[in-house]
Write a structure and sequence with these properties.
The protein is of the alpha/beta class. It is built from nine helices and 14 strands. Strand 13 and strand 14 form a beta hairpin. The radius of gyration is 17 Å and the shape is globular. Bound molecules: (5S)-5-amino-3-OXO-hexanoic acid (KMH) and zinc ion.
Length: 282
């Protein structure tokens, strides 16, 4: 079994300091949270950015500033900007961080309800546009799937040349409007991806660590972080993203799964392969 890649989604677009005062907004705070996650064992930082007042941002300049700060503090970590941004952003806004040629970025493979009137829109043409630009710029997509049908979409678009194989998926489970975070549905997702693919499991809210445990056992990888959950355990707020990563490391230790360094994660994900992915640091 491969070593375990831990991704820390340190910031998100929807969670705020009202949910947990440690949620980072400023460049300095984002650097602090990335470092805490990295020191605890994260090899990938999934990155959203904010204005200093917490407003979700997506501009290239803010991403560049945050990436520079993270690289200063943890030079070898893999940085994975979000192209999902926040609900309501235009495609042009969302694509901006790709121009910085990060090693990875998210590629959301379908539209999903986020509860109430919130809809996270990813039409087929959006996915094709983002996928094409990622191929042009040598960015490895993390294929974000909120339901099983999104896996089928990704497989179809890979066959049509909009995504390169082998694909790396992120099963986002337990979002309102998406697939449930159940053992049955986790197994269904794992069984549905093509041979040779890799995957990360993300459980939302109270499902964060149950999905992590399943992925640890099944040979997948794990994402945790304030974007998905702000609690260390029931009713106990995490003091930092580092605490959430530490808990995954403890769970992995109990099951005898070793933790991947960023260099090892690059090998597992094929980031060093001659597939046109960006190897240089920004
Ligand atoms: N904030 C959501 C609208 C991604 O990072 O690609 C989208 C999201 C997915 O978080
Ligand atoms: Zn995200």
């Amino acid at each position: 079994m491969d070593k375990l890649i831990i991704t820390a989604a340190i910031c998100g677009a929807e969670v705020t300091k009202e949910h947990n005062p440690a949620v980072p907004y400023t460049v300095e705070e984002i650097g602090r949270e990335a470092l805490a996650a990295y020191n605890a064992g994260a090899s990938i930082i999934h990155l959203h950015v904010r204005e200093d007042d917490g407003t979700p941002a997506q501009c290239k300049q803010r991403f560049a500033a945050c990436i520079a700060e993270i690289k200063r503090l943890c030079p070898d970590v893999i940085i994975q900007p979000s192209t999902g941004g926040a609900v309501g952003m235009s495609n042009a806004e969302r694509m901006q961080p790709l121009e910085l040629k990060p090693e990875m970025a998210t590629l959301d493979c379908g539209t999903v309800n986020f509860g109430g009137d919130e809809i996270f829109v990813n039409t087929e043409n959006t996915i094709k546009e983002f996928g094409t630009r990622m191929i042009e710029l040598g960015v490895k997509p993390e294929v974000e799937v909120f339901d099983k049908g999104m896996i089928d979409t990704a497989i179809r678009l890979e066959r049509q040349g909009f995504i390169k194989a082998p694909m790396h998926f992120n099963f986002v489970m337990g979002v309102t409007g998406g697939i449930a975070a159940s053992v049955r549905d986790f197994a269904y997702m794992v069984d549905s991806i093509p041979a040779g693919s890799t995957y990360t499991a993300t459980g939302i809210g109270r499902h964060e660590f149950t999905m992590a445990a399943l992925a640890i056992i099944a040979g997948g990888h794990v994402r945790v972080g304030f974007e998905d959950n702000v609690y260390l355990s029931r009713g106990v707020l995490a003091k930092s993203n580092g605490e959430l990563v530490e808990k995954v490391v403890r769970l992995a230790g109990e099951f005898g799964r070793q933790i991947a360094t960023p260099a090892e994660a690059r090998v597992i994900l094929g980031l060093n392969d001659d597939a046109g992915f960006n190897r240089q640091y920004l």
